[in-house]
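Action item from last week, closing it out:
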Amino acid sequence: MPDSFKSKIHCPSSTTHSSSVNDTLLHRFLILAAIKLLKHIRPHKGSVLFVSRSLCIKYGPLVQLSEASTMRYISSHTSIPVPKIFCAFEHHGWTYILMEMIHGDKIGVGWMDRSEESKAKVLSQLKQMIQEMRSLIPPDGCGIANINGESLYDCRLPGPSLNFGPFSNVQDFHTHLRQGIYLDPNLDPELQELIVQQQSSWPLKFTHGDLSSLNILASGDEIVGIIDWETAGWYPSYWEYTTACQVNPQNYFWRDEIDKFLEPMPKELEMEETRRRYFGDF
């Protein structure tokens, strides 16, 4: 697909609706044709096809159209660098998102070789970005939901579906996480304590939901992009911290850095660890 395709697309103002973006027959044809022609000759990582030096297409049955809505919302309401969205649509059960390709390295690359000063610069930027995102005000009547008030997505949560919710309040969300179990004196004491803890209240904060070093791009000491917003949405304020703390083996070093850009919430982290022991791996 030529880079000139970008000039044919004009991104409208940000919207909070999980709707298609610049979805015309011509754009669909060009994107579907590009995938067919280029998927065997251009770099392809997971669900992302890099069609040129400045464009990539994220596509597949598990790609969420709401991710495009989220990135447009973040772009228009914060200074956080995210890929620009040129086109997004659903076709035969698959989602296709044509977006800008941000040039940068995952910050985990060479992290251990960075000076402490370099690490501090990067983490300071990240902290400011996350604080800016967490200052966003949820709309009236908002519950636990994605940016457009619809179901959330997280392939790491156990359950019959990768999509779940939306929920009218935090308590309904917690009831879902513990598979509908309510407080009962016959339950294990630890489980009873978990349910009591989950009955507390937390404010809603807009949450990326996967702040792994794999999803943060840097050029030198500058953060140039935060990517992979499919798990984002309005969640209780602890969710960003507890999800970030569940690092995968590729990302284990990152656990030591999380408290430097997110407010530590040790009680909530312990609560989540208990939930996972009883109700499945996160």
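Closing note: The domain at 25-100 is CATH 3.30.200.20 (Phosphorylase Kinase; domain 1).
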